[in-house]
Records
---
Amino acid sequence: MNALQKTLAIVAFLALASQTVRHAYRLWLEPRGSSLDKYDLPLKDEIGGATSLEELLRRYDKVRKEVDEKRQELEKVDAKDRPYINELQTEPYKSEHALRDAITQWEKESQEIYQLRFYWLVAFVFLVLGVITYKKTSRWLGLTLLMVAFSEFIYWTSPTFLGSGVREFDRLLLNKLVFTILSLLLLITVIWRHGVFAEKAEAS
């Protein structure tokens, strides 16, 4: 059993340690600019500089009114005389699409932060139950509960591979970094308290 514990501890440590490094890199060191950004200014700066969802919604409301006015004007024109408009390249449609995507991403990342916090707490409950069961009742059952706990820790703090350009993404990364470090500290504590790599375990 001790060999299994060592293997699981090493795998969990490698996963959490590598995730910690990746989150820190993406949050503070990863280059985010592009030579093409200048063609999307100033809208990209406005989206990236928004500090709340409400701010994005206010900007979207303004652009959406412009879009509705444009569409109403076009509806007054005969269908045969109506010009073709590529909404992905023409203002204000382009800005409306960009702001809509930013709002969608903000809401998605806010939901992911909520899920991360909720399931991390659920995993912490499994961890506490696992430690108690391991000491008081059954080592195998306790180890199983600990495996469930750290599997949840690792899964919910796993890297987010695509960024959205809104500040909520940075908040998501920061939450993942903090909870990954907490998970790593809990893993080290469990390893130390249970003497997984202690010499006496080898002797027995």
---
Amino acid sequence: MLHGIRAIYVYRKPTPYEPSQVDRFLTRLLIATVLGLFSVAVFKHTPMRVFTAIGLVLVVLEVRELGTHVVKRSTLYRRHIRYILGSYFYVLTVVSLVHLKEEIPRRNVRWLWATVLGIVVVYLATSRRPGLVRHQGRTTRWAVIATVTVAILFGSYVAYDLLSAAA
């Protein structure tokens, strides 16, 4: 989430942006976090392996995007979307672990359903592939609709779960 907030903060500045010490610190923090995930993923824990692979992709993107001397506004915007949506789907994962124990008995599925959905949504919203860029408005709209639909449905279920438990 810090990466997403930083990206939109810098996006709003009027001058061309050159990565600063804050950006390098956040990149090192991301690398340290991925190494921490890797240390858990070495043991038999499939979700941590998936999160480590996603983390490695994020590290590669960070190094590539911030390796240039001037970062484009479009790159900052994509970074903002990528990290804010990633944070949102992380929260969905946590809520899923807490509230879907009986509904989804398989632990790996509880851990990973939001991640799979998040990967698709983030890809649709940030891809620079020519076929998707041509239809960027439509793909972004569908990504937003999917995200909001899941938020409403899952949020309603959690509210129902909490209210029925209280009764």
---
Amino acid sequence: MENKHVDKVSEILKEVGKLVEQSPEENTVKLRQSIKDIQTLTQESGNKHLIFLSYFLGVFIEDVWSNIAMDASYKISDEDIGNILSYIGTNFIRIGENIERREYYKCYNDYINLLHKYLDDIKRLKAKVGE
């Protein structure tokens, strides 16, 4: 049963990662939906690594969503937003591949890099608009 959940979470991450990487702004809804799908799956799994992933990505994507929604009304370019989302897509693919191989601890670096780059991007964009 656990393998089924791990495989499905991996599949969701890789699939939505590719979509977001290729067409970031056209797939934001799919990005958010994928997190909801992962949260539903992990509730049943009992796998502590998937549960952590689910919580981390849930909080992370909500923060991204909030910032993008607010910043879109400011002077943030579509290109900047696309770059942030594309990087998220790339990391989702990487996380999905590590989960598929059951290399959960390699995901830790992916989580750190994802969050660190995002926070740097937000700081840079705030400076750009003069906040």
---
Amino acid sequence: MGKIIRPRYPVEFSVGLLLLIFGLSLFFSHEIFRIPGVHPDERMYFGMFLVSSAIIIMLLVLWEEFLFPVKVKAIEKGLVFRNHRNKLKVQALIYIIIPVIFVFIYLNYQVNLVPFVVCAAICILAPVMGKLISGIKNYNDFLKLTKESIEYKNNKEVGSFVLTDIREIVLIKDERNVLHKIQLFTNANHEVTIDLDEMELEEYYHSINKFISVYYRNLLKADESSKPTL
């Protein structure tokens, strides 16, 4: 089962914020349409509703924690950190609604081309650039930490190490003192770097650091574990 490791905002706050954004989007979305006469008609209001809905859908894809709280999979003697596949599938399905909405509006309404293109581009490209590409790229990546072993997959790099074969572990942190790489030094004098920053595991840095500090503390190289990289 998944264990939530970072609490979400209260539901009332999240829903209220989305409703506020929806209302603002509805108010300004009339700029996209060529409105005959002085005021929008019922058909135009429906088009404005669709634009606002597309903006909310975009936010739901980008704001993952609203629908997908950050969870870590607990297993026997350890934890598995990964880019959740079901989350990515649901995000992709939700995302498809966005281009469908803008195609429908373009085919059925008279639009002001520049505002329409700008709004459509933001709503369509932002989720792709912000979440979907990285999610697909890291679809199979994972880090598995147990009291007996370390396993990981990062694109083409795969590794599995029994703790008794590891001589030393170094936690590499950036200038903000945030963990982003793990270096393993084996008894056979091999050095392996696990690039957490390439595996879409940002949400788990604190939990990974905590697990290693507790269960691998005898292997940690204390004097370099907080040293920032250049």
